[in-house]
Amino acid sequence: MKKKSSILLIYTGGTIGMMQDARSGELRPFNFKALTAQIPELEKFDITLSSISFEKPIDSSNMHPSVWIKLAEIIQKNYAKYDGFVILHGSDTMSYTASALSFMLENLAKPVILTGSQLPIGIIRTDGKENLITAIEIAAARTKTNKPVITEVCIYFEYKLYRGNRTFKYNSAHFDAFKSPNYPLLAEAGVTIQYNDAYLLKPEKKAFKVHTALENDIAVLKLFPGLSKKITLAILNTPGIKAVILETFGAGNATTEAWFTDALTSAIKKGVIIYNVTQCLEGRVIQGMYETSSHLKKIGVIGGEDITFESAVAKLMFVLGKKLSLKETKALLQKNLRGEISL
Q1: Per-residue pLDDT tens over the stretch 91-131
Q2: Residue 103's Cα: distance from chain center in Å?
Q3: Which of 58, 59, 134, 340 is most buried by a 10 A CB count?
């Protein structure tokens, strides 16, 4: 007899977890202990549902690596007890959290689905109810051989399931808030949920392992016409800096002015990692394709391929946290670890 799927719902904070008081109109945290009373549709699922709520809900803008560690530890503690996990999270930094968890949860063989909403769950026109219901359904989905359909960290939002470390939030005004331009949808919910099996991450037959060491001494240098030498040097020479994400033009291009190349070269010689990520929302870094990126490749700037900015931040924190040699660190940054880049 097929057993019920058991899902752990983890509420961190965010818009989805708010209810509007019918009299005062005031927004207050949702009572997840009475989840099925608030959303009776959940009773139609043959699912055992449990929930954990952060004692103090965290606004998405206050998200921090310490919270990622807390989430990873909750999943680690409950990994054997549940078939899947749904994390309710504010949408503004959801892609960062999904990316970070994808790296922190090595050899994941169960679904971890992040979802949220643009309107509180108690508002009449909320997108929160559908997002939550379908995220739970996806987390509980099994194959004909009773294996989880999804075995990676994903974001579910507005009828679409995405690989978490391939997403970014592109819209703050519409329900369709996320995009994944460099990787196909993993599933789309309509009358039925259609899974894109060819693009799902297949689990490694290795023991599940959780990494909680993260290093956040990184900075971002976004290029624009007229970028100041003074500001560039201030960023590259920040005391204790370990890595800089260089947000470049097009396919990884940057100014060829001597002072800029010299500044990057000096930082690289000091052991600072320069990680080249394109400002374009679609496409990839191809260092050496044009003259304006050949000099970057020559001095040792690392090309980020088609990684998103959010994933680049998380990957750097994860890889730097491993305290490897400079050579090993650079090698890992160029390796596809969790489906975050296309090689």
Answers
A1: 899 999 999 999 999 999 999 999 988 776 667 677 778 88
A2: 9
A3: 340
Q: Are domains 5-210 and 218-333 of this chain identical in fold?
A: yes
| Tokens linked to 225 | 């016409």
- 296: pLDDT strictly greater than 90: yes
CATH of domain 218-333: 3.40.50.40
Catalytic residue among 12, 15, 308, 329: 15
Instruction: Give me the CATH topology for the region 5-210.
Output: Rossmann fold (3.40.50)
pLDDT single digits (tens) 27-74: 666 666 655 566 777 777 888 999 898 888 888 899 999 999 999 999
Burial grade of 343 (CB within 10 A; 0-12, 13-18, 19 or more): exposed
Domain ranges of the chain: 5-210, 218-333
* Catalytic annotation present for 212: no
Q: Are 76 and 101 in contact (CB under 8 A)?
A: no
Q: How many CB atoms lie within 10 A of CB 74?
A: 17
Q: Tell me which of 252 and 177 has the higher pLDDT.
A: 252
